[in-house]
Amino acid sequence: MRGWQGEHMNAAILAIGSELATGQVLDTNSSYLARRLVSRGITVSEQCLVGDHEAAISDAITGLSGRNDLLLVTGGLGPTKDDLTRQALAKAMGAKLMPDEDCLEHIRRLFRNRGKTMSDSNRLQALVPEGAKPLQNLNGTAPGLEAYINQCSVFVMPGVPSEMKTMFDEQVVARLPEGTGVIVHKTLHTFGLGESALGEMIADLMARDANPMVGTTASGGMVSVRISARAHCSDKARELCERLVAKLKHRLAELVVGVDQQTMPVAVGRLLADSQKTLAVAESCTGGMIGKMVTDVPGSSEYFLGGILAYANDVKRSALGVAESLLAQHGAVSEPVAVAMAEGARKLTGSDYALSVTGIAGPDGGTQEKPVGLVYTALAGPDGTRVTRSVHGGDRHMIRTRAALSALNLLRLKLLHKD
Fold this sequence. Notes:
By secondary structure, this protein is an alpha/beta fold. The protein has 14 helices and 17 strands. Helix 3 (54-67) crosses helix 4 (85-93) and helix 9 packs parallel to helix 14.
């Protein structure tokens, strides 16, 4: 079997069901199985969703088994006409479906124990492709299946999560190899560069056969660097991870916000707490998003004093003291108004620092001079006020998210003395 003898064992996970493929039901089985495999040092190279179509399922089994050492399949083992996994497996194996008397008796026994009569359709669940072996289902009527295709071990399990987990933990795990090593993951969160530009900075570390492996993911306005180290023991894997984390931190410098759970709000909160400084916010286009991000962090009451949601110009004037002349001359989305909002919030709350944001989140309201995505961010502090101008891309939610993160990053860099 490919890969059983070495450390580089690849696995694929195939989830079957039209309700999953169309997004009507969330596929939780695949994430569970991926975590369990990684904990045993098995690399999950592919995850696939296929609807209830026999040919598509068979093609997926054939393709995935041809590229991997292990294939875990969930779903499609029920008694109805849209449950086609066993038929598709038989087709991929080039085998006939044959009734298994032990499986049939197990199903009958389950119905008897529940005081119910077995339907004829349940006989379908006792069919097993020639050459495959059934896996007993302790929690339901659908037996699992174990097969061998293209030098790949294939395990088929029910789609019901409770049945799948029990079958995997009690029957499949025992059939997986021992001593395949350990994989440890770390994630660096960065802000300030797009994914492509960041990727160019670390391109030499992203070879696909490297250990640790490095990849990037853009999500929620941040770009994360994923590190996966493989070794025979967890201590060695962690050592490999930490060594590369240190190298990335040195290379990316202030672009690195934090590691693993240290997101932007956590990083900013820690810097405020360590320096014993306080923060207030004045928000317009972000609609309270900065305040929410900050207060989502436990212990934020130590450094966060409060915020003013000044969406309307009247509130900017009355609550923050923004002069009517500034609004009339420059408009609400402008550098002078952003400065006045931040300074007004700092004066009102007595905070050490105050952030303000004013912009056009869209989808309407933009002009040639002030396009959708334009945001002014100001940071008022003991040594004066700094303001930045940005034009963020994306939809309304993304523009607001990026504006909020940019504001927090402005404060983060100030507290790091990197600005």
